[in-house]
Design a protein that fits this description.
The protein is α/β, with parallel strands linked by helices and 283 residues long. It has one domain: Rossmann fold (3-Layer(aba) Sandwich), CATH 3.40.50.10320. It is 36% helix and 15% strand. The longest helix has 17 residues. The radius of gyration is 18 Å and the shape is globular.
Length: 283
């Protein structure tokens, strides 16, 4: 990571994620920091999260969950300060290997060319300097995470000939993948075991979950925006299990984990070596 320095001008940033709440867990602090720094941020959510969890039956039903989660995301982005929130309105594809993967309305089943064109249209409209999306592993292999990463990558590449010069004089936007390093998964697993909490994933899985640590190019400390990040996440009420394994972790440990966010500047992104996201001030 290079020494922080002020960006030469306000940036336009496009974040493309699969579900409501993906933005908060992975890079809520960075998004808040970008807004606080005067940069323009647009969030595109590919699905409505309609097969996600329902933490309290009073909050939603399976039939209303998609609409409820759209509202939760808008409320969360009000906290973060992002006014431009858009939905592609695909159905949540569910976890890998479930019947929801085969639903014809799901993102997983959507024709690639259609999704790529939808994302490309937003890129052509906004002309962003930076695009952020899931990394190719999807963090934990969720089909929607992997799918929107692939389609967003293709959209960025398809727009390069017509996109403006990037902040370092390159051809089009820089593409960043949001990362969950494997060492972080391993630390969380060990912390749960030490606290006698049953982890949601097996020890053997931590060798494959997430991004290989040596592929992380950009590490951002976002402690100054931790309160905003947490308040934003709390808006996703249907997805917060007050008795789940993550809720049982010590607050100090959770705050430590949430205060650092990780990215990979996509290989050959924009033919640049400059890490614009890494250079942005952390406050």
């Amino acid at each position: 990571m290079t020494s922080p320095q002020q960006a030469p001008r306000p940036l336009t940033v496009l974040a493309v994620f699969a579900h409501p709440d993906d933005e908060g867990f992975g890079c809520g602090g960075t998004l808040a920091a970008l807004v606080a720094g005067g940069h323009r941020v647009t969030l595109v959510c590919a699905t409505n999260g309609d097969v996600g969890e329902i933490s309290d039956p009073a909050l939603a039903t399976p039939e209303t969950l998609g609409a409820v989660r759209q509202g939760e995301l808008r409320a969360a982005m009000d906290v973060t300060g992002i006014a431009d929130v858009r939905f592609l309105n695909y159905r949540d594809s569910g976890m890998a290997g479930t019947d929801d993967n085969h639903n014809p309305a799901s993102l997983f089943q959507a024709p690639a060319e259609r999704v790529v064109e939808q994302v490309s249209a937003v890129i052509r409209e906004l002309r962003p300097d930076i695009v952020i999306t899931h990394d190719p592993t999807g963090g934990y292999g969720h089909p929607d995470h992997v799918t929107i990463c692939r389609h967003t990558t293709a959209a960025v590449e398809s727009c390069r000939p017509t996109a403006p010069s990037g902040p370092d004089g390159g051809d089009g936007p820089l593409l960043y993948y949001l990362c969950f390093p494997r060492s972080v998964f391993q630390r969380m697993w060990q912390e749960m075991v030490n606290a006698d909490i049953r982890p949601p994933f097996a020890a053997d899985d931590t060798a494959a979950l997430g991004t290989a640590d040596d592929e992380v190019t950009t590490t951002r400390k976002v402690g100054r925006f931790l309160t905003v990040k947490k308040e934003s996440l709390e808006c996703h009420r249907t997805q917060i299990d007050p008795t789940g394994p993550f809720a049982q972790l010590s607050q100090d440990f959770v705050d430590e984990i949430m205060s650092t966010e990780y990215f990979q500047l996509a290989p050959n992104s924009n033919n640049q070596t400059r890490d614009i996201l890494g250079e942005l001030p952390e406050s």
